[in-house]
Amino acid sequence: MDRSVAALSGKPAGAVARYRSLTARRIGLIAAAVVLLAAVFVADILTGPAMLPVATVLDVLFGAEGADRTTVAIVHAIRLPMALMAMLVGIALGVSGALMQTILGNPLASPYTLGFSAGAGFGAAVAILTGLTLPLLPDLTTPLAAFVGAAMAAALVYGFSTIRGMSAEVMVLAGIATLFLFQSLLSMVQYLADPEVLQQIVFWLFGSMLKANATNVPIVAAITAVGILLVLPDLWRLTALRLGDQRAAAVGVDVTRLRVKVFALVAMLTAGAVAFVGTIGFVGLVAPHLARMLVGEDQRFLLPMSALAGALIMAGASILSKLISPGGVVPIGIVTAVIGVPFLFFLLLRGRRRYW
């Protein structure tokens, strides 16, 4: 009798111990990712076309007195905003991708594949083609047009999905249709553009951190912070949603309302991320899969790790974009695509092991 009681009492204790061990492991991985991101962030600031000594850059970065004015200008006006923007865009796209894959139950869902980035590209292309300039905010004209384009794409997906009850399948199909629609419209704008204007449009579509400055970095930071803070109260609901719509509804989750809210937040995060830097592909698709491989499906750990994975991918891509072509900067959108495609092939080759 005593042995059976001990055995029964030992099972819950063992389960609790395993859960605590798993939680500690996940927290440790997130902490390690934070440390790695800090190192990569500093490395991003250290690299650039201007071959500055590492010690000099570190002195300027950490506030040493007597630094050369040119070095100070390069570090604080160019490199630091670029590094911060890369990190913020990676965080926004990583979180957006994880949220989209969760509410749609689709491993291929991301802001890029559902047409948000294509909408932003179309909006920016129209602004560049027409030469539209806002009287009070001339430097923000193209970013605002890109933001509006992304919002239009989100509204289109939402409108079609509402007709059919906001189901995951309908949202995915509406997103794919929206992607092709805005890509077609973008192709038409490129066809109508003069060679000089076409060059500007193509450069914007490639994606670049060179547009980062002390004005737009705080804007992206504010949009990203607001979007993440608004989704925090729904973490357990999102975790329940991964069990399926019916099971989530059985534990009290309003599935339709949750999808609408998260969809709106993803649209805001994506629009804010790509409005100033151009189209960035694969980060929102790859980062959540990488995070899921490390910490699993619990949204309390998946979203932070997705944000860190997105930031690491963008920061690493930023470094590579400056090292590939000495004396110049390769558009970061090209680098993220080069990184993302092999990772997708890796997932296919590891098909026997499920990460989804």
Tally of helical segments? 14
Instruction: Compute the separation of the termini in Å.
Output: 43 Å
Strand percentage lies at under 5%
Number of strands: 0
Number of domains: 1
**Would you identify the regions where 5 or more consecutive residues have pLDDT less than 50?**
1-10
CATH topology: ABC transporter involved in vitamin B12 uptake, BtuC
Helical residues, percent: over 70%
What would CATH call the class? Mainly Alpha
Architecture (CATH level 2) name? Orthogonal Bundle
What composes the largest sheet? none
**Average pLDDT across residues?**
86
Give the helix/strand class: mainly alpha
What integer value in Å does the Rg equal?
22 Å
The CATH superfamily is: ABC transporter involved in vitamin B12 uptake, BtuC
Structure write-up:
The chain is built from 14 helices and no strands. By secondary structure, it is mainly alpha-helical. It has a single domain, classed as Orthogonal Bundle (ABC transporter involved in vitamin B12 uptake, BtuC), CATH 1.10.3470.10. It is globular and about 65 Å long.
Question: Topology of this protein?
Answer:
Blueprint: H1 2-46, H2 54-61, H3 69-104, H4 116-130, H5 141-163, H6 168-192, H7 195-206, H8 216-231, H9 235-241, H10 245-250, H11 255-274, H12 283-295, H13 299-323, H14 332-349
Helix pairs in contact: 1-3, 1-13, 2-3, 3-8, 3-11, 3-12, 3-13, 4-5, 4-6, 4-7, 5-6, 5-11, 8-11, 12-13, 13-14
Which features would summarize this protein structure in a list?
mainly alpha; 76% helix; ABC transporter involved in vitamin B12 uptake, BtuC; single chain; globular; 0% strand; 356 residues
